[in-house]
UniProtKB/TrEMBL annotation:
Alphabetical UniProt keywords: Cytoplasm, Cytoplasmic vesicle, Endoplasmic reticulum, ER-Golgi transport, Membrane, Metal-binding, Protein transport, Transport, Zinc
Entry-linked InterPro entries: ADF-H/Gelsolin-like_dom_sf (IPR029006), Beta-sandwich_Sec23_24 (IPR012990), Gelsolin-like_dom (IPR007123), Gelsolin-like_dom_sf (IPR036180), Sec23/24_helical_dom (IPR006900), Sec23/24_helical_dom_sf (IPR036175), Sec23/24_trunk_dom (IPR006896), SEC23_SEC24_subfamily (IPR050550)
Name of the protein in its database record: Protein transport protein Sec24A
Gelsolin-like domain sequence ranges: 925-998
Source species taxonomy: Eukaryota, Metazoa, Chordata, Craniata, Vertebrata
Domain Sec23/Sec24 helical stretches: 799-899
Amino acid sequence: MSSHAPVNQGYNSQLPGSYPHLLPAKTLNLASGQSSYHGSQGSGQTLHKPPVASLSVAPSPYSGPVPRMPPPASQSPAAAPRLSGGFPPGASPLPPVNWQHSSPPMAPQTNHCPPEPSQLAVLGNTNLSVHHQYVSSGDPSLQNNYVTSGSALSLRNPPLPTTFQPGAPPGPPPAGGPPLVRAPVPQNVSLRAAPQPSFNSAANQEGITSNTNNGSMMVHGSYDEIEGGGFLATPQFATKNPQMSRGVGYAYPSLPPGYQNTAPPTSATGMPSSLNYRSGPQAFPQTPLGANHLTASMSGLSLHPEGLQVVNLLQERKMLPTTPLQPPAPNLHEDIQKLNCNPELFRCTLTSIPQTQALLNKAKLPLGLLLHPFKDLVQLPVVTSSTIVRCRSCRTYINPFVSFLDQRRWKCNLCYRVNDVPEEFMYNPLTRVYGEPHRRPEVQNATIEFMAPSEYMLRPPQPPVYLFVFDVSHNAFETGYLNSVCQSLLDNLDLLPGNTRTKIGFITFDSTIHFYSLQEGLSQPQMLIISDIDDIFIPMPENLLVNLNESKELVQGLLKTLPQMFNKSLETQSALGPALQAAFKLMSPTGGRMSVFQTQLPTLGVGALKPREEPNQRSSAKEIHLTPSTDFYKKLALDCSGQQVAVDLFLLSGQYSDLASLGCISRYSAGSVYYYPSYHHQHNPVQVQKLQKELQRYLTRKIGFEAVMRIRCTKGLSIHTFHGNFFVRSTDLLSLPNVNPDAGYAVQMSVEETLTDTQLVSFQSALLYTSSKGERRIRVHTLCLPVVSTLNEIFLGADVQAISGLLANMAVDRSMTASLSDARDALVNAVIDSLSAYRSSVLSNQQPGLVVPFSLRLFPLFVLALLKQKSFQTGTNTRLDERIFAMCQVKNQPLVYLMLTTHPSLYRVDTLSDEGALNINDRTIPQPPVLQLSVENLSRDGAFLMDAGSVLMLWIGKNCAQHFLSQVLGVQNYASIPQAMTDLPELDTPESSRTLAFISWLREQRPFFPILHIIRDESPMKANFLQNMVEDRTESALSYYEFLLHIQQQVNK
Ligand SMILES: [Zn+2]
């Protein structure tokens, strides 16, 4: 699962210079053409050859340069590993079973910089920026003025909510001061009319690259240089160890997530409290942080009073808290901690970082980060400034954890270089005070977004481009999915993120590929059929991806007609591979998002697959096909990535469809996989509802285009493996053609150099992307953690959820590179090894039992839950595609949702009361206690709700009180509960409103809509419900207590 491969390898992504074909297409209009199309069904492909060539579809020599990304640095042959068949070669070829102490595979590159030759203040101009600013049209829904919440100023200029402009004039503000929302245009700032570079305008491109203020503007060869840091940093990032392709975890796609376990109880919106804008500038000491503010090793232990406890798990069986588990707070001085990044966005498996790798190895706990970098935020400070202040050496963005040596100099917290404070940064537009650089928003917020000036662009920001690729074979028609999808698109067409530049297009396919001309001015869409799937070309490309505004009626017309167009199709073949090639060619010039809907195993042309699931092997941990059978999808995904195209796959299939192979198209292109097993428009209403809800979210959620993400860390620490859906462009730069707010990432780290000289370390992620409005933006998160020198402190600060999440990601990799049973062993060993280390090295008196630090009291439980999770379970009949999909979700889900999927929350809901309830906007939300996942806690006279992230299950006991049945379910008795009930009626009873309030509160906390299943005792869903009772014994899996005994036996050896 971990490899490093360049884009454009193998597969030829170039469009041919000219097309040798003669019109292998025909044109039809939808009305009259339909019969003609179907008339030709099954009559051989030659009938598709057009009798007519009157339309201007003649393939002409390809003209016009394709705006193309310069090749990424890693395309150099030296950095190019082989693309062998099968899964990406592991970063660590068959690491030992105890993976946490395997050394990083490929000589990880320390994220540090050349030592500062002297600690002289840096001379020269750190301000490389162009002195112009974009006027942002913004995305008002998600942004905020940089103004105190509730302040009247924030309402002052509603249409321009995006930014404040600290790039303001040096020196004290003019009388009256600049308005907070938008500063008057200083003389050295030229306002652009709008960030709407006409995309193909050469003049515009010129403008973008020539607006330099010092003549030393670099020519960016790649995003690596742009984000990574421009020429100043190039030596360290681009040339150091050029051949070391770091082991990288390629990831998997997944469904969007749900659930927040850290929502403050008083917030209806789950607004991260640390992102609330503080009402006034905080006093910020200008002395270096470390000396004055660190208490970690000294008095800090008192911050973890419970942390000093040890727990004998064999005696204390009820360790699960009755309220959602909170992440541990790093042991930092409160002045630092209050500025720290919200753990929902950025957290570390160890909130106390070991000083040395040797110490880390002793603890036998994995060190890594879990990120949710593009999460929807209620409050996000957005800065527009002509100067984005970054370290001259390592290109770290200035952040709350740098230290100011004096007013004019700041010291980087990652590489320790001393940098100048640029003149513009001296003025604080918030306080309107000159000389307070430490109170600037950049230094007061661990999460912040910058409007990027032009040097952060390789080309004018791309327009939003959406291409939909639909399977229209007979099988597809049978499922009836096209109706739902087209209707959903019609409903949400105006909500697609974008602007006047938004483009849209459609391709359908069965054994042939069908394009649709939507050129403005046509009276109706025209269909073009390509029957030669071995040599795909694009007829009239300019009319196939069209401006949504200009062609909206044609698009709507097509969406209304499409579902009926293929209803007589008998074509059972599926040429998915050629269709993807066609879609890729169509999108290459711009990049964008490709949404592919597939209902079966592809059978025709490139990328055709064969069934290889053996049903009687389903419950075994051996010899199952978790790796792709062809590298076609991976190669195509890499080509897509190189052209800024991400592919999202919607698989709606009752049959085995080899998701292990198909999923590669999304994994490497930074897309997502959605899976609807046995989708059927009539027989499976729950799936229909699920698809509809998920499409609603998918189509309307925020999207970032042509994105890259880099993670930096303090000198001495090093990143060695990434997990998620992306392509690793260079050693630590992730290529994300699309980024969505529901995607999570994980990173494994190691300690390369002893961290003795520092008491704090920081991690910074920077996500550079193009918004759907065409703005280039950078979202930066910075996390600060203490360094510790003892094993005990490491254990005290362990974050058991983050550890479990990282281990799950590593176990997916291990399943691919070794085997499922190997991965399971590694999970168990992770528990045994760390608890053994604790017992032998920390515990002073050897007590009997299984004694664990309080911080890890749930570690065995969570690992057991992982072993019973669909990804890793054995002994049950798990369909291969479902297992692969579960693995996709492990890789692509933010941690909170991964944990909820793995260890759901169980509540009793027939006894809900207002005791301890939340009060949000006049709504009373009951807060029943979380129960342990064991049937012991169920009773036949009750009703129990299980929240498993993307699904809610309400199990009704056979003897459930009549009162609950009538007051909440609205039925007379147990027997009259409908078999497939997925909704609770709104009844005018207190019981009904309490139950509904609780369920909608759970739903509101996640960006997607979990379906509710109401489960009777005889319901087929009951097995799913019981399967999640992870503490119970099953035929093939240990109970929690048995598992503890097993662990104890191993630990006490
Ligand atoms: Zn630095």
